[in-house]
Amino acid sequence: MTNKEKMLAGEMYDANNDAELIKERARCKELCQKYNATFASDKEGRDRVIREIISSAGENLTIEQNFFCDYGYNICIGRNFFANHGLVILDVARVEIGDNVFIGPHCGIYTASHPLDFKTRNKGLETARPVTICDNVWIAGGVHILPGVTIGSGSVIGAGSVVTKDIPENVIAAGNPCRVIRNAYDDT
Question: How far apart are CA 25 and CA 10, in angstroms?
Fold first, then answer.
């Protein structure tokens, strides 16, 4: 099994000594650099480059510069997506983002994880778990979403949160670690 196959299967793999993965990341980094250098007024050029980076994206896709990701081909975004400046997606595993999702500035979505044992970590090995953000989610500024997390439809994640566990649908959640505060539709 290749390192790429192990990566996509969520198994321990070596990203730093695999020519295929190094080449794919370099290509993606160059495309991100091209995207980030595209004039904001060049909407067609921006859209063309971002769609070259991201494997699947619906209509009305807006990602403000600067944007960074590892591979791009593991990112799938629905319709009516807006991300403010400074979005980072470490898409070692699949990142699924639904329709009508809004992301504030300086947010990160991370699928990559490193072993806690330093001897294994120092060998350059890592794993990955997918992240899912369902429909109609608002993620405020400065949020970090960790590997393996699912955020349910209709939920709001408060600014500065670190999302370490799944968040159910239709709630407001915030904090470090992120916790459910209340139902999103309570008037209290």
Answer: 18
